[in-house]
Design goal:
Layout: E1 27-33, E2 42-49, H1 57-61, E3 65-69, H2 70-73, E4 83-93, E5 96-106, H3 108-114, E6 121-129, E7 135-144, H4 159-178, H5 182-189, H6 193-201, E8 208-222, H7 226-234, E9 249-251
Parallel strand pairs: 1-5
Antiparallel strand pairs: 1-2, 3-4, 4-5, 5-8, 6-7, 7-8, 8-9
Length: about 260
């Protein structure tokens, strides 16, 4: 190539080279505060872009869902490590995020460890309205077990017996869920009280084992009330009066479907 012919080589790019900026300098950290039903209130930290112009950081955090292991929320109890708790950000106070219960799930490895050959799986789901206006869907799972001194390899449950067991599951979950508020319901769910009640009630139909409330989803919630949220965080024992109808409620996005 002849010297001096390509004049574009000597010219710099338009605007010059932009200075590299650390993106974390534009972020700020907020602490996640779990409700008082859990032993460990400090659930972790999250970050968000600092307030700039009309884009307010606190507004971007509201509605954010955090998934935390129950073992971390209950002081490192590894026996409850298979439980996953969902917390939703509902109020921002300074650099603290006050959360509320949003759902519960079971880890895949725990669920896979329960499923075995030569036995039946019984599943049931039910929608329950708590006394403080939350619409909650609960999923229950149970497995058949052998009779005492049984020699037969399999322990399959007949369809008629499965129907009776599912009816018992629906009855117990509906009764326990509809006579308490969300805070009391969470207290029942954490120590597996409902699972033990269902197992005991179904012994006369067919022996079952490993009864768990597999999953819990909050489908609808009442109009936001900061005093109710503060009760969840301060350990107030006030149980709400039973409501006949909810005038205004919020449908939680992505709450539909079987799974």
């Amino acid at each position: 190539m002849a010297i001096g012919k390509n004049k574009r080589l000597t010219k710099s790019k338009k605007g010059g080279k932009r200075k590299a900026q650390n993106p974390f300098e534009l972020k700020e950290w907020y602490s996640i505060k779990a409700p008082s039903v859990f032993a460990t209130r400090e659930a972790g930290k999250t970050l968000i872009t600092k307030t700039k112009g009309t884009k307010i950081a606190a507004e971007g955090l509201l509605g954010r869902v955090f998934e935390v292991s129950l073992a971390d929320l209950n002081g490192g109890d590894e026996e409850q490590g298979f439980r996953k708790i969902k917390l939703i950000a509902e109020e921002i106070q300074g650099y603290n995020i006050l959360t509320n219960f949003h759902g519960m799930d079971m880890t895949r490895d725990k669920l896979c460890s329960l499923i075995k050959k030569w036995q039946s799986i019984i599943e049931q789901s039910v929608d329950v309205r708590t006394t403080d206006g939350y619409l909650v869907r609960m999923f229950c799972i149970a497995f058949s077990k052998k009779m005492p001194n049984q020699l037969k390899k399999t322990c399959y449950v007949q369809s008629g017996q499965q129907k009776l067991i599912r009816a018992k599951m629906t009855q117990i979950m509906s009764e326990e869920g509809s006579k308490c508020d969300l805070k009391e319901l969470v207290k029942k769910l954490l120590p597996e009280v409902l699972g033990a009640d269902i197992e005991k009630a179904c012994q006369g139909i067919f022996p079952i084992k490993d009864v768990y409330i597999r999953k819990v989803k909050v489908l609808k919630k009442p109009k936001f009330d900061v005093t109710k949220l503060m009760e969840m965080h301060t350990g107030g024992e006030d149980v709400g009066a039973k409501v006949a109808a909810i005038v205004e409620e919020t449908t939680v996005s992505g709450a539909g479907g079987r799974y």
